[in-house]
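Recap quiz, item 2
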Amino acid sequence: MKAVSATAASLTLNIDGQDLSCRAGETILEVARENGIAIPTLCWLEGLSLWGGCRLCLVEIAGSPKLHAACATVCTEGLHVTTNSPRLTHYRRMIVEMLLSERNHVCSVCVSNGHCELQSLAQKLGVDHVSLPYRFPKLTVDNSHDLFRMDHNRCILCTRCVRVCAEVEGAHTKDVKGRGILAAIIQDLDQPWGDSKTCTNCGKCVNICPTGALTHRGTAVGEMVKKQEFLPYLTLMRGCGK
Amino acid sequence: MTRTITIEGVTRIEGHARITIQLDEQDQVRDAQFHVTQFRGFEKFVEGRPMTEMPGIMARICGICPVSHLLAAAKACDDILAVRIPSPAVKLRRILHMAQLVQSHALSFFHLSSPDLIFGMDGDPTTRNLFGLIRRQPEFACDGIMLRKFGQDIIGLLGGKKIHPAWVVPGGVSAPLAPEHREAMLRMVPEAYQRLGRGLEYFHEVEDRYPAEVDAFANFPTLFAGLVQPDGLLEHYDGVWRFVDERARPVAELNDPRRYGELIGEAVENFSYLKFPYFKARGYPRGIYRVGPLARLVVGQRCGTPRADQELGVFRTKLGRAPQSSFHYHWARLIEILYGIEMIARLLEDPEILEPHVRARARPNRLEGVGIAEAPRGTLIHHYRIDEHARMVWANLIIATGHNNLAMNQGVKQAAERFVRGKKIQEGMLNRVEAVIRCFDPCLSCSTHALGQMPLRVELLGTQGEVLDVSQRP
């Protein structure tokens, strides 16, 4: 039987035992957030394009053996979604542990100590130690910009800075170079930030960065508090809907 | 046949160390050495970090005196920024510093050293520790703990947390003092005086029981060095760095911290990770000097606070202007606690202490800076160089315990010569050798703080390195 258009635009699904309805085209993450169901994220930010890189929003869908990224999975009729289970917690903890071991995240002496999304998430997930061996890569700090600082040791490659710079500010100063473990955030053609001709010094990348990777220059330990009042207006600022 | 006695794991000090005593064929001490066996590498791994992170990173060197490293690092950064920091910020930093002086000295005297004085150097090692002290003299032990609490509470109220506060920043401090915190600190002062008064009384009861130890605990003429105000008042935060001789006569003075290299050099010995600073004009190792509470009281003319000056008068009447035995570090430490409490009270009463302007902001205006402060254990020097983007390229730290390294080594040898002899090595003999080290309150900057229950392993080694005898402390 062909569905009438009114019902085609709305779907029903079940998240964590709650029967919910949503509009067609909405993702699981959006529906969950609208209904007060918390799913952790790091790379996703309302108003920016979809990246799906951090994998923290993985959820279980009944009938599917694999896990699905809630930010990138569009709802379909009759979905049964589980956002919290021992299996998911195990994977989320493992992801955070991998992020912590991949570069040099030393919370105690980080300028963002106490104001860091990665740190808060690790605390929420009960990451009291990292079971993987640390890589201790030799990474640099780009302190060449007059106002801001890029510390590659603290970067988790969520690319929020790349997207906000390209999609909202329209400068596209930042991008990603390299692949896999060698990937890194760059400015222009891999130049020191201070030499960038395209950077407008707007500071959105700094305030949107979830960790201590992008900070104000001259901040001391624990001092970097991000100003995120503009985040709810990102969609408007971007000017083209989602 | 010569023998070597190794005291592996010196107890009731802050950090890891080992003492070896070499005996000759007649079982007389031929030599003794104090080895610092831990390696930290702070100077290396800060390379590349932004300069403004230095106070926070350097404070992590130690959990007992992080404030000294915070201040020396912040002063080195102030020097690089070339700013004059606001006067209330200087006063707030001084309060923080004094609070740490009180808690660190209380830890050294009450927790670590007093068991030797109360139970005797030959006392049963199973009870000659803080826990034995709590059983024997609960009120005295409580005074020590509460004096530490006094200092730690003030650090917590000022800096937001008691250990490793990140409140001291290049250019000043990150937040002004809240009026209610000032009141809370002032309320704690009378009790601190009372507790220290009891501690001093008790010290005077027991101090005369140890004439042999006074005689042989690093008792030799050396130079003394410490910060002092130009008019001769005791100083811990700023001022000039002065060297005086064994009769307290000034021999050298440093007004510009950046020129410290003209006064002292650093030697390296292959038996220790800790370097051996020496007074250049006298060469190595003749340029031996001591720092810390005893040295500060010798270098300074007077304290400048009434109660501490009164006690200093008693100290000098009894021991002279420049006591040579390091045993007297204990008394000097108690006088400095008194001074610390008085200074905290005085600074808190200062009319500008609640001023909101507590931070000067600037970009680096130099590529090099040096900060000097007096840590509880002595003069602490942080020396940094940065690149044009304010990233660290080089650091040199000369810590208080380093300055005393030559004196500690000679002191260990002196005590060993005096107390260790014969074929049968007794625990009390070795404890005296350790107790010399405790006089200096060395901070070897480690996360382990033994409480006298760490197994003490003594090995007697033959000339070929074969183990002749082993004894293990219970």
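The CA atoms of residues 10 and 434 of chain B lie 6 Å apart.
The longest helix of chain B spans residues 87-119.
End of item.
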